[in-house]
Input
Amino acid sequence: MRIKARFQIARSEVLNFNFDISAEGITAIFGVSGCGKTSLLRVIAGLELHTNSTLQVGDEIWQDENVFLAPHQRSIGYVFQEASLFDHLCVKDNIEYGFKRASADSRNISVEHVVSLLELQSLLNKKPAFLSGGERQRVAIARALAANPRLLLMDEPLSSLDQARKAELLPYIETINKEMNIPILYVSHSNEEIGRLADQLIFIEDAVVKASGAISELLTRSDLSLAHRRQAESLIFAKAEKYDEDFQLNYLSSEVGTFLVPGKKLPPSKELRLRLVAQDISITLEEQINTSILNIFPAVIDELFVESKAQLTVRLSINKLPVLARITMKSAENLKLEKGKNVFAQIKSVAVLA
Amino acid sequence: MFTSADLTAFFLTLQLAFITTLILLILGTPLAWYLAHSRWRYKFLLEALIALPLVLPPTVLGFYLLLLLGNNGPLGYMTASLGAEPLAFSFSGLVIGSVFYSIPFVVQPLQDAFNNIGQRPMEVAATLGASPFDRFITIALPLARQGFLTAIVLGFAHTLGEFGVVLMIGGNIPGETKVLSIAIYEHVEALEYTNAHLLSASLILMSFLMLIAVYAINGRFRAVRL
Output
């Protein structure tokens, strides 16, 4: 579903948020705290009105010079930072609130379905006051889904939870994304969540949308600050192929090649995301044979960008996929690295996000 | 025991309190909603005006209402020219007086209750497809139910005890304007202490029971502030 937006949000500084994306799966709205991510979500929902703005979602105009649909006229689900359940209604009535108000022909998802998806069967008759933080947020997500929205908006839905609850809730969000054909706009400033969930990014910096598009591309673009961070990283999608019990080693196949990752056995069915931190990748001109490093791939240098007098970032193309490596200027000079040169990327560590 | 005149006064008082509370709920709910949500700079002027009956001697309120409702007052003149009964020294006049007299006791608890709900539940309901009226009925009203209970009990109880306003604009017409407090006053004037005791004690008991209900349900009594 295409989302075309031009927002002028008047705050202490004027935020100019323009983007045009094809929203499928999870699109993360990403930026530092206070950059206006939440405001962006609120204007998309119609909870805030700013003039000189337009918004088109699919074939519907939600806002332009002449039109402004009120929030209740927009087919959205909104999950706020805090669960914000209706305290006077039990869990079931909370979930049914939006469902009852959805038009009959838009009701593709039943209340029973969302209840089972978020595993709320045992809580249906409870009042929100008797739920834990994680349970409350699950009910809030179920309630938003049961409204059968065309677009699901989530504003840092995990930020009010502790680390353990976060880990519990993340799989639910992945399941929703997989099982339901609802595009999700997901506000977050957490690298971890973005890396794990997002298919696309809307990247906000300096009061504008700097770029929007596929996450693996945006993370490695030299014109964006993401690739220049100390923790610059690349994202690779992979699948567990086989497992070597003797060495407790996973063989993960990806478009880059097969990664060997030690650890517990990873489920073969799941799509895995591998995070490659730029600082953990080194470059050699010849393929090293007598080395402790397991993951070595032939690569072509795509672009070199200087970070400082000491360091530079190399964007490698491994089987046409972009991977960043952060090395010293001295090594770059020693190896005479330049665009188009064939090298080998040695990947010292791989983090599996799952 | 109660004389029949006392019983008449008793039921007249209940009737007055009931009608007054009903009118105050109808008028006070939108007013309280407005006060809770308006961002008007000079909103405090309106709030101060509504709190006035808390500090004014009821006779002052009664005096100006008398001028307003009397045959020479603008409202009295209007009703007279329409051929209606004069408002001063009538039950209707008493209702109008009581509404002014008890307004803060209804509006303030409601305003507090609406404030306490906050914007968030209403925003959530909006994103779930509820129109403004729908979410007022299904979210705001149930969430403000304690405020409503407090408003009803306080509005009712406060009207029960009114004296000064009635004295000024109601007088002492049995079955029309002679309410409990006036009846008690009369008994005391006539040195009928037994009758005065009976009425006073029942008024104390009734008010006490109602306030117990408010305290018990609200935990703390913060409904009316100045």
About this structure: Residues 163-179 of chain A form the longest helix (17 residues). Chain A has two domains: 2-218, 233-353. The interface with chain B takes residues 45-47, 70-72, 74, 76-78, 80, 82, 84, 86-88, 97-98, 101-102, 143-144, 147, 153 of chain A (CB under 8 Å). DSSP finds eight helices and 20 strands in chain A.
